[in-house]
Automatic annotation (TrEMBL):
Protein name: Glutathione S-transferase
Record lineage: Bacteria, Pseudomonadati, Pseudomonadota, Gammaproteobacteria, Alteromonadales
Source species, domain of life: Bacteria
Molecular function GO terms recorded: glutathione transferase activity
Keyword Transferase listed: yes
Residue sites binding glutathione per the record: 96, 129-132, 147-148
Record Pfam families: GST_C_2, GST_N_2
Record-marked site positions (Lowers pKa of active site Cys): 252, 295
Gene3D superfamilies, alphabetized: 1.20.1050.10, Glutaredoxin
Annotated keywords: Transferase
GO cellular component terms, A-Z: cytoplasm
Domain GST C-terminal per the UniProt entry, residue ranges: 171-295
Length: 328
């Protein structure tokens, strides 16, 4: 784990000392948008037109942020249009790697050894963390974006003319409600588990833990009244929450000490997780080998023995009580 400074890799863990033991996630810096006609998106430059086989997605199957983009690639039938490479779950002194002996697919574009080489290919003097997911433009040989919440919005709509898939997970009339729930989920749950797990003071940990379980209680109450986060249709908000929930009992409960209750004990949340898991195409985007191996093996300051737990055994294919959504 580390970062690039002027294009040179430095092995360094997150700095929590300067922030009262709290983990603070940095903003992703590369924020261009692929659009249907190549015009500029809400941020960044123009020139990234949606074209078949022009873009490549670098992901980790362990990472909840990258998982969102894989889900949208699947839901929006983009698999024949956007190629992918999968990094190894082991994120050690050189950061994400393409070690095929350690479960990586290899880098299909450049045969690189490490993910940081993709960032320096984009900018030889790059400074910053080397995160996944990354959306790469094969035409201009540069990174389009390294922000998952924006990559899924591009996938949601920019390629519709190529795929004919017009399912909309961020419909204009629901955008306000979706943004609102995303806000609660992002700060307290998606990032909340990391704030608990990476905290280096008791106070910072307990604060994150309390915020996390309060937010889960809110979600549990909401899911008692309706099938999904924003009514009866699946939206982006559900997929953003799902990638954290599916990792919860296997990783965050133990490794990140988010152990008030496993999600299996929340009647509505557990049914909801199964409904999303069983949605066509989704189960094949979930890989518990990568997920467990990444966290338990890579975070040596949290788990110095690097032993990967054998359990838990949870059957996500069991029946659920959510209504099946047609169309989306
Ligand atoms: N804001 C980014 C966050 C991505 C992110 O933090 N990914 C993690 C993996 S789960 C990563 O690559 N971390 C490496 C690091 O922080 O050095 C997004 O949502 O795309």
């Amino acid at each position: 784990m580390g970062l690039l400074v002027d294009g040179v890799w430095h092995n360094k863990w997150y700095d929590t000392k300067s922030n009262q033991g709290k983990f603070k996630r940095e903003e992703a810096p590369l924020r261009n948008w692929v659009t249907a006609d190549g015009s500029a998106g809400p941020t960044g430059k123009s020139g990234f037109k949606a074209e078949s086989n022009r873009y490549h997605l670098y992901v980790s199957l362990a990472c909840p942020w990258a998982h969102r983009t894989l889900i949208f690639r699947k839901l929006k039938q983009l698999e024949n249009h956007i190629s992918i490479s999968v990094v190894s779950p082991d994120m050690l002194d050189n950061g994400w790697s393409f070690d095929q002996a350690a479960m990586s697919s290899g880098d299909h574009l450049f045969n690189s050894e490490y993910m940081h080489q993709i960032y320096t290919r984009h900018d030889p003097n790059y400074t910053g963390r080397v995160t996944v997911p990354v959306l790469w433009d094969k035409k201009q040989q540069c990174i389009v974006s390294n922000e998952s919440s924006e990559i899924i919005r591009m996938f949601n709509s920019a390629f519709n003319h190529l795929t004919g898939n017009t399912n909309d997970y961020y419909p204009a009339e629901l955008s306000k409600q979706i943004n609102q729930i995303n806000d609660l989920v992002y700060h307290n749950i998606n990032n909340g588990v990391y704030k608990a797990g990476f905290a280096t003071t008791q106070v910072a940990y307990e604060q994150a833990y309390n915020n996390l379980f309060n937010a889960l209680d809110e979600v549990e109450a909401l899911l008692a009244r309706q099938a999904y986060l924003v009514g009866d249709n699946l939206t982006e908000a559900d997929w953003r929450l799902f990638t954290t929930l599916i990792r919860f009992d296997s990783v965050y409960f133990g490794h990140f000490k988010c152990n008030k209750k496993p999600l299996e004990l929340y009647p509505n949340i557990s049914n909801y997780i199964r409904a999303l898991y069983q949605h066509p195409g989704i189960a094949e985007t979930v890989n518990f080998n990568h997920i467990k191996r990444h966290y338990y093996f890579s975070h040596r300051q949290i788990n110095p023995t690097q032993i990967v737990p054998a359990g838990p055994e949870i059957d996500y294919t069991r029946e659920h009580d959510r209504t099946v959504v047609q169309g989306n």
